Amino acid sequence: MQKKLDESNRPRFHFTPEKNWMNDPNGLVFHKGEYHLFYQHNPLGNKWGHMSWGHAVSTDLLNWEHLDVAITEGADGAIFSGSAVSNGDEITAIYTRHTEANQSQCIATSKDNGRTFTKYEGNPVLDLAMANFRDPKVFRYADYWIMAVVKPHQHVCSFYKSTDLIKWEFLSEFGPTAAVGGVWECPDLFPLSYNGEEFWVLLISINPGAINNGTGTQYFIGDFDGVSFTPKYSTTDPRWLDFGRDNYAGVTFNNEPKGRRIFIGWMSNWQGAVRHPETSWTNAMTIPRILGLTKMGDEIVITQQPICEPTYEIVIDATKKHPSGLTGFVELGYNPVSKKIFINDYETDVEPINQQVHLKVIIDRTSVELYTDDGTRWITMAVFSEPEVTRELTNFG
């Protein structure tokens, strides 16, 4: 039975672990010709536990080579989420060490392109003696390193500075603001340009408290001066990266060789991971997406474009008086009455352009990603159908 489930549910081009449990993407970095995808992983089973960093590498972000577990849970604690940087010939991983009473930030270094890591003997490098203090995202800024790390229950993202990845100096904090109905997790901070002007983007995942009180990722557009992040717009209402159920804890690659800002999220959620079939692995990642900026109304907003071609592309007449789109194992499309695009019960506002709505769809064996042609709206869903159910969709409306 499991072999049959494996054959019918293993995605064709979305990343999955070779076996066992996976959640957050960690340590996304390009180093010496390879994209490294580390991830939260249970090496011992299909359910959450024994958190360690799984590891895979790719040259094109679609075809992945599975490698041995990179950093394993030890007697000193579990290996929670974090990031990685390319530092000369080495990769340095910055992660949260978790025990029941404490979460602190630690480092480990690889001299062989990520195949093996050695934990720093002086760990932790940042410890506030807090039970919840996690998910460090580290990146290079000017001639030093910046760490963004969250205090989840306080809804605060803290920023620190270091010249050696060992000694960290506190800089500032951002929050609480926008969506605070769940814990803040997995921050990311990076620059993007629009019309020659640089803006900074801060990502914060939240669980629950997102769309339909599920898990999700909010973002803020603003400025970062090397010390503090200042939002450009009001933060009373959250701005969502994705309007679906299954895009959480996503972060971007450091050191991308073409200067692109590439995002990958966990294509599941903490309320619904139990829906996953009893396959030899559990959970998948979203398709990698290239992030950009555009203007919508009076605001600069994020755009996302996948690194693969869509499965379907449809242009819908917005003057119709009824919904239309594609139907099958899911139903998706555009409702001109509500002016919303949708996958099943998940929806978001979209304004027609020249009385048309241009949609693209990526279908894999266990997922649907619907997005507008300009990349400003996405709905991501993990969908588990019976093996005999076709993944082909037909037009309706």
For the record, the count of structural domains works out to 2
**Overall average pLDDT:** 97
Helix content: under 10%
- CATH class designation of the largest domain: Mainly Beta
The overall strand count is 31
Content of β-strand: over 45%
Q: Any idea what the CATH superfamily of the largest domain is called?
A: Glycosyl hydrolase domain, family 43
Which structural class is indicated by helix and strand composition?
mainly beta
CATH fold title of the largest domain: Tachylectin-2, Chain A
Q: Largest sheet at a glance?
A: 5 strands, mixed
- For the record, the CATH architecture of the largest domain stands as 5 Propeller
Global shape:
globular
Total helix count? Answer: 1
Output the radius of gyration.
21 Å
Distance between the termini: 38 Å
Parts with pLDDT < 50 across at least 5 consecutive residues:
none
Q: Strand order across the biggest sheet?
A: 4-3-2-1-20
Would you give an account of this structure?
The protein is an all-beta fold. It has 2 domains: 298 residues, Glycosyl hydrolase domain, family 43 (Tachylectin-2, Chain A, 5 Propeller), CATH 2.115.10; 88 residues, Exo-inulinase, domain 1 (Jelly Rolls, Sandwich). The chain is 2% helix and 52% strand. It has 1 helix and 31 strands. The protein has a 5-stranded mixed β-sheet, with no helix packed on it. Strands 5, 6, 7, 8 and 9 form a 5-stranded antiparallel β-sheet that branches. Strands 27-26-25-24-31 form a 5-stranded antiparallel β-sheet, with no helix packed on it. A hairpin with a 2-residue loop joins strand 14 and strand 15. It is globular. The model has no long low-confidence stretch (mean pLDDT 97).
